[in-house]
Design a protein that fits this description.
The protein is built from five helices and four strands. By secondary structure, the protein is an alpha/beta fold. It has a single domain, classed as Metalloproteases ("zincins"), catalytic domain (Collagenase (Catalytic Domain)).
Length: 154
C-alpha cells in the first residue's frame, strides 16, 4: 500500500447499522491505492427516507437507491477533492439479504462502486459498463478478500 494521504471523512445519519469509520476508510483507501489515485472524499450513511430525498432532488428518480456518487471538480487543489458518496444502509441490508451475504459485504461493494464513480468510471453504455464492472469485480475480490483474511470485516 502506498502512503498517499487521502482524507476520507465518514459520517452517519442513520441508526440501522453501526459502521466503523476506520473500516470504511480502509476499504476506500485500498481502492484508491489499487487505482494509484489520491484525493479527499466524504461518505455519508443515511436511511431510506433521506436517500429518497437525495435521489429525487439530484437524479429526479423516485425512491431510495443504494449509493449516490457526487464527483467534485476543483482544479488546482493541493489534494484532489474527489467528491461525496451517500449510502443507504437499509437498502444495503435488503440487498445483502437478497444476495445471501452480510450487510458489510454489501456496503464494501457499494463503497468500491461509488469510489469508482468518483474516479470517473460509469456504466451508461455497454462498453463503459463492462469496463467498470470488470474493474469493480477485481477490486472487490482483492479488497474484500484482503479484509477477510486480516479479520477487518467491519
Amino acid at each position: 500500500m502506498t502512503t498517499n494521504y487521502a482524507p476520507v471523512l465518514v459520517r452517519s445519519n442513520q441508526k440501522v447499522l453501526a459502521v466503523q469509520a476506520s473500516w470504511v476508510r480502509s476499504i476506500v483507501l485500498a481502492v484508491l491505492d489499487e487505482e494509484n489515485q489520491k484525493g479527499e472524499l466524504s461518505i455519508l450513511f443515511v436511511d431510506d427516507q433521506e436517500m429518497a430525498l437525495l435521489n429525487s432532488t439530484y437524479r429526479k428518480r423516485k425512491g431510495a437507491t443504494d449509493v449516490l456518487a457526487f464527483p467534485a471538480d476543483f482544479p488546482g487543489a493541493v489534494v484532489p477533492i474527489l467528491g461525496d458518496l451517500v449510502i443507504s444502509t437499509p437498502t444495503a441490508i435488503r440487498q445483502a439479504a437478497a444476495h445471501s451475504h452480510t450487510p458489510l459485504h454489501e456496503i464494501s461493494f457499494l463503497l468500491i462502486h461509488g469510489t469508482l464513480h468518483l474516479l470517473g468510471y460509469d456504466h451508461h453504455t455497454s462498453s463503459d459498463r463492462k469496463k467498470m464492472f470488470k474493474k469493480q469485480a477485481m477490486l472487490f475480490e482483492r479488497v474484500w478478500g484482503n479484509h477477510q483474511r486480516a479479520g477487518k470485516t467491519g
